[in-house]
Design goal:
Elements: E1 3-7, E2 10-11, E3 14-15, H1 17-26, E4 31-37, H2 41-50, E5 55-59, H3 70-83, E6 87-91, H4 94-107, E7 111-121, E8 124-131, E9 136-141, E10 148-151, E11 166-169, E12 202-206, H5 216-226, E13 229-232, H6 234-238, E14 259-263, H7 269-272, E15 280-285, E16 298-301, H8 304-317
Parallel strand pairs: 1-4, 1-6, 4-5, 5-11, 6-10, 7-10, 12-13, 12-14, 14-15, 15-16
Antiparallel strand pairs: 2-3, 7-8, 8-9
Helix pairs in contact: 3-4, 5-8
The structure holds flavin-adenine dinucleotide.
């Protein structure tokens, strides 16, 4: 069976759900080989085995993580030269899209971004991509070189397929050019105790209608009552009320939770692009004509400053 290289997305060995999704999707094409860069593999081992990695390449050289993305692109290119995989898959994040682009140049390959599904075809990979802010899907294939695919988070439900991966320490060389930019400091995001936005089953998002940074407490209160994550529209982020890391939409994160609750958000196409695949969409907006109602499963026409605290109180009471 063909080998599919999957770049593992992890934080100190804690494997992100996006990687278990990638492994699930990669199995539609062949045998996934996980590429684990950095420290913490002991923590990651179980997750990679559970989701079907047949092989794990361990790249633990410090220079791969002490610099920005260039060394990772070089490392993947060297692995690809050695193992000639049928495809290389990464998650569709800002960092991995940059790695994908650099890698494609090195391998002389094509990249398909924002892939939501894959199937083998004509001796290559046929990918379904979400384009135009998720409003259309197109089927595409790379016609030259090893296909490089970045896969949108929440494109698959992770399905276990237990395996006993062969572990191989892989030595790669990192060029001086790739070391040109060095990471000098990492500032971990404040720990909120809430689930990661892209992985949460419930997301409560606030928009311009929230009115201020302090008022986001009502959004957080409801998210906490529901055990969910907090999101924000770009208007709220641009106003400085909530950090960009929580922005949902075309230029933010893509979420696909069981329940997405949008409060004080009008439903611009760029916001929809990041949440329209949510299973159930609930809306609180004081304007009954707000476009977001068109896509809502449930809607409350009302002031979020009254509705959200009432809902929080009721949920906490039960
Ligand atoms: P508004 O459109 O101003 O809507 C506010 C809503 O709150 C209104 O419907 C109003 O009725 C309601 N409201 C007001 N007060 C209350 C209250 N007290 N109670 C209840 N409801 C109330 N946007 C994103 O969100 N994510 C993106 O990633 C993104 N990327 C973009 C990329 C590009 C290239 C461009 C051009 C735009 C992008 N945008 C993005 C911006 C997008 O076009 C909208 O401007 C933005 O989504 C609007 O945010 P909003 O719905 O919070 O604000």
């Amino acid at each position: 069976m063909s080998e599919i290289l999957v770049l593992v997305d992890h934080v100190d060995g804690v494997v992100r759900k996006t990687t278990t999704e990638l492994l699930t999707i990669a199995r539609r094409l062949g045998e996934p080989s996980a590429v684990f860069v950095g420290a913490g593999y002991e923590q990651a081992r179980d997750a990679l085995a559970t989701y079907g990695a047949q092989k794990v390449y361990l790249l633990e050289q410090p220079e791969l993580t002490e610099h920005l993305v260039a060394p990772k692109a070089e490392a993947l290119a060297q692995l690809a030269d050695r193992s000639t995989p049928a495809a290389i898959m990464l998650t569709s994040g800002a960092e991995s899209k940059e790695i994908a682009g650099r890698l494609a140049i090195k391998l002389g390959s094509g990249v398909l971004t924002d892939v939501v599904d894959v199937e083998p075809g004509d001796g290559t990979v046929v990918a379904t991509q979400a384009v135009f802010a998720g409003n259309y899907t197109v089927r595409s294939r790379v016609t030259h070189g090893t296909p490089i695919l970045t896969v949108k988070p929440n494109s698959a439900t992770p399905e276990p397929a237990p395996a006993q991966p062969v572990e191989e320490k892989a030595d790669v060389t990192v060029s001086d050019r790739a070391r040109a930019a060095r990471v000098v400091e990492r500032s971990p995001r404040t720990q909120t105790g809430r689930p990661e936005l892209t992985e949460a089953a419930i997301v409560v998002s606030g928009g311009r209608g929230v009115g201020s940074a302090d008022n986001f407490a009502v959004v957080e209160g409801l998210a906490d009552a529901l055990g969910g994550a907090v999101g924000a529209s770009r208007a709220a982020v641009d106003a400085g009320w909530y950090p960009h890391a929580y922005q949902v939409g075309q230029t933010g994160k893509t979420v696909s939770p069981q329940l997405y609750l949008a409060a004080g958000i009008s439903g611009a196409i760029q916001h929809r692009a990041g949440m329209q695949t949510s299973r159930t969409i609930a809306v609180v907006n004081k304007d009954p004509e707000a476009p977001i109602f068109e896509m809502a499963d449930f809607g409350v026409v009302g002031d979020l400053h009254a509705v959200l605290p009432q809902a929080t109180e009721e949920i906490n009471r039960r």
